Amino acid sequence: MRQFASGADTLIAIKQFHTPGETTLAKSAPSRKASAKTAEGEEIFALRSLQDAHDANPRFAASDDELLHFYEQMLLIRRFEEKAGQLYGLGLIGGFCHLYIGQEAVAVGLQSALKPGHDSVITGYRDHGHMLAYGIDPKVIMAELTGRGAGISKGKGGSMHMFSTEHKFYGGHGIVGAQVPLGAGLAFGHKYREDGGLCMAYFGDGAANQGQVYEAFNMAALWNLPVIFVVENNGYAMGTAVTRGSAETHFHRRGTAFRIPGMSVNGMDVLEVRSAAEVAVAHVRSGKGPVLMELQTYRYRGHSMSDPAKYRSREEVQEMRDKHDPIDAAKAELLARGVAEERLKELEKQIRSKVSEAADFAENSPEPEMPELYTDVLVESY
Questions:
Q1: N- to C-terminal Cα distance for the chain?
Q2: CA–CA separation, 371 and 382 (whole Å)
Q3: What local confidence, expressed as pLDDT, does residue 47 receive?
Q4: Is residue 25 domain-shared with residue 86, that is, in the same domain?
Q5: How far apart are CA 255 and CA 249, in angstroms?
Q6: Does residue 156 fall inside a structural domain?
Q7: Do 196 and 222 touch, CB atoms closer than 8 A?
Q8: Which of 102, 154, 265, 281 has a C-alpha 20 to 30 A away from that of 55?
Q9: CA 108 to CA 69: how far, in whole Å?
Q10: Is residue 128 part of a domain?
């Protein structure tokens, strides 16, 4: 513990949050004059973390069927993204394309704890995996990637701007960090309607340094909004290691100035992610306000399809694939539980077939009609 002078007769004791293996962040001790309450009469806030609750039950006790479903969803995302990469290479997908390969356990583990069609989800431009994890048809996602009229945004959104009010999926946003205040707005909507829903707002370690993120934190905490802020920390943002771009690299601590509890989670284990999600969802649904989750994850591909990723070694990427792959880990656990390997092979075959069908559907669907240029621009028709 260190002490800092704050005037002649006030000492502030700084402690740090409990995270496994770490000392932790700020807890203010009362001054000699203030005792248990501040001069304004407000109770002194004790910074708190949900880390202890997660650490007490670090892995979700999934049944064989539940784990098999998680495995199926992650494998679908992996094979879908691999196919998207192929189509991009063939020139069938234009613009930017950010693949989710390696990070599948995050979206699957978190969104499996939500209520589809009720809770809202919003994310940045690496969004294909989140849509698949929310049960949206791969065909309309692939059609959108290829700019076809049958796409979920009528072919006008592309990879980065997919949207479905029907599924409570609100993007897909190309501006770094812009989805965070929008997520706070979605949470405000849930609170205003008193529908019991919440919003899960994803952003990356690079977006974590955007000013609008902290404005959103402040509003969410001030208004006690039902929102889970999720930092998908894949270590490199757009190509800069977090240690080079962030003064505080423990992103789950970033909400402490706004009294938002946080937790750090292994994002490469779908059962750990699901367990942490249950802690966060229970906190938010009970009316205690926002939560900040940091998911430690890793992307195997570059930031986008145009990124050669020369800022890290091939050996580093291969080590992550060999030792920490979330899909391989889930498969190994299923086999250890006695699930037949033939059953997993059949599932793999079915998923490859589903992805191929999605690609064929996209390639054979027509482009949007010209009048579509004038739709979805304004709320009303003019």
A1: 65
A2: 13
A3: 53
A4: no
A5: 13
A6: yes
A7: no
A8: 102
A9: 10
A10: yes
